[in-house]
Amino acid sequence: MRKQLSMRIQVLWILMLCVMFCSCVRNPVTGKRQLALLSESQEIAMGQESHPAVLSEFGLVDNAELQKYCTRIGSDLAKVSHRPDLPWHFAIVDSPVVNAFAVPGGYIYITRGILEHMNNEAELAGVLGHEIGHVTARHSVTQISQGQLIQVGLGLGSIFSSRFRQFGGLAQMGMEVLMLKFSRDHENEADQLGLKYMADCGYDPEQMSRFFQVFIGMREESEQSIPGWLSTHPTPPDRIRRTSETGIRIKQQSARQNYIIDADTFIPKLGNLVYGENPREGFVDNNRFIHPDLRFQMDIPAGWKVENTKSSVVFAEPQGGAIVELTMTPPDAGKSPGDVAQAIARSEGTQFLSGGSERINGNPAYLGLYRIQSDSGNIGVNAAFISYGGHIYQAAGLAPEASFSRYSRSLNNVLRSFRELTDQRLLSVQPDRVKIYRARKGDSLRSLAKSIDQNRVSLQNLAQINRLDPDQPLSAGTWVKLVQLGKR
Ligand SMILES: [Zn+2]
């Protein structure tokens, strides 16, 4: 988690407003008129409004040079696209999940996870071109008009208050709407558009299908906090063949002699990027949630699941019977834990039952019991507001009122376990980072990986990010992405 409150609910409202202004617009790619919910200016507004939410959810990769590089390549592609005049934005978000996504209005995001799987600039152009294609062909816009917003609308109907998130599924709804799963037809169309845009910019269009080989045999971890490419971009088996054929055909039909691939510029830029989860932003150690950057720890009930994002951390009972969500309250929420608690008690749909000020492990705090009314039954809330390290943390333990007593002890124990982190070993953990290496004659990935602890980063992972067979002899000068293990 990071130092901002989630803005997901705001995104939902924006989407909801969009639903009310349905109109018919001309598709920039096909030229046909189609029913779409958003006019171009509404699309742009949606992108602008969602951008802060995306940032609060993921954060940006802290590397200005790399961001500028990605923006330059993306902007060149956008210029040759069907909608060159949109206010295009490109950003690398700080997530190890392998994905890329586009928000209407021209906001394109790729994760550092997907970037680390790329081998050259043309592959990056292929992925950016594909996402640009989703925007130019207005896929999200038509997708949203095809039912997603109905779901969002249902979700919105049951938000109990602006302060507490809906118990259960809503927490991720905002991001899920931004990361729509596209239909196969839309995927194909985005591939074809991306191939055209990249070739028009001089990139070798055959590199797109090469990159898609990354997804062969890739499995997504079901517990990751956001969906990966495989779940948002259906990859049928013939996709690699189709994009490869189109790439070859484009080259045959073009008078151009040389195409850009450019690993030499691209690969060194990945050096020192964080690889995998960044433990500085929170990790689980012995049934405790540890946050080295914010210097706190909290106990997790045995067997509960943990979902950590930039804006919150959620502990969930395995059957979903109860959750604890820890966030930071925004500076305008109140100056003291008591102020924040009072503001919560006044919020609509929330009933204050009891509470009072006390200290939690030495930190000024307010503990309160609340009832939240919802259409699907009342929710009991045990909340703690804790002043620590210059922030006020909000830990909310929620369970349906009917079964609240079953969980109240666990919830209370979790809230009261918030405390300073003093263990130097845990405070000083460092993330793993990409290390760039140029192969010498006789090297293989297996020989190079010898010094890397396989329990931390497996040979298969290295083979996957490099798309190299572990025993393949490397020719001198081949770029290899290795991993420098961080302190644990
Ligand atoms: Zn796609």
Q: Strands, helices and their partners?
A:
Blueprint (H helix, E strand, L loop, with lengths): L7 H12 L3 E4 L6 E4 L3 H19 L5 H16 L9 E5 L6 E4 L3 E5 H4 L5 H16 L2 H19 L15 H6 L5 H17 L5 H7 L16 H4 L6 H15 L9 H4 L7 E2 L7 E3 L2 E4 L4 E4 L5 E4 L3 E5 L6 E6 L8 H10 L3 E11 L2 E10 L6 E10 L2 E10 L3 H12 L3 E2 L3 H4 L4 E7 L6 H4 L10 H8 L12 E6 L4
Parallel strand pairs: 3-5
Antiparallel strand pairs: 1-2, 4-5, 6-18, 7-8, 8-9, 9-17, 10-11, 11-12, 12-16, 13-14, 14-15, 15-16, 18-19
Helix pairs in contact: 1-2, 1-6, 3-5, 5-8, 5-9, 8-11, 9-11
This protein binds zinc ion.
Written account of the structure:
- The protein has 488 residues and is α+β, with helices and mostly antiparallel strands.
- The protein folds into three domains: 8-274, no CATH class; 279-426, Mog1/PsbP, alpha/beta/alpha sandwich (Protein Transport Mog1p, Chain A, 3-Layer(aba) Sandwich); 430-484, Membrane-bound Lytic Murein Transglycosylase D, Chain A (Roll).
- It has 17 helices and 19 strands.
- The protein has helices spanning 8-19, 40-58, 64-79, 112-115, 121-136, 139-157, 173-178, 184-200, 206-212, 229-232, 239-253, 263-266, 337-346, 404-415, 424-427, 445-448, 459-466; strands at residues 23-26, 33-36, 89-93, 100-103, 107-111, 274-275, 283-285, 288-291, 296-299, 305-308, 312-316, 323-328, 350-360, 363-372, 379-388, 391-400, 419-420, 432-438, 479-484.
- It has a seven-stranded antiparallel β-sheet, with helices on both faces. The chain has a four-stranded antiparallel β-sheet with strand order 7-8-9-17, covered by helices on one side. Strands 3-5-4 form a three-stranded mixed β-sheet, sandwiched between helices.
- Strand 13 (350-360) and strand 14 form a beta hairpin.
- The longest helix has 19 residues, at 40-58.
- The model is unreliable at 2-24 and 145-174 (pLDDT under 50).
- Bound molecules: zinc ion (ZN).
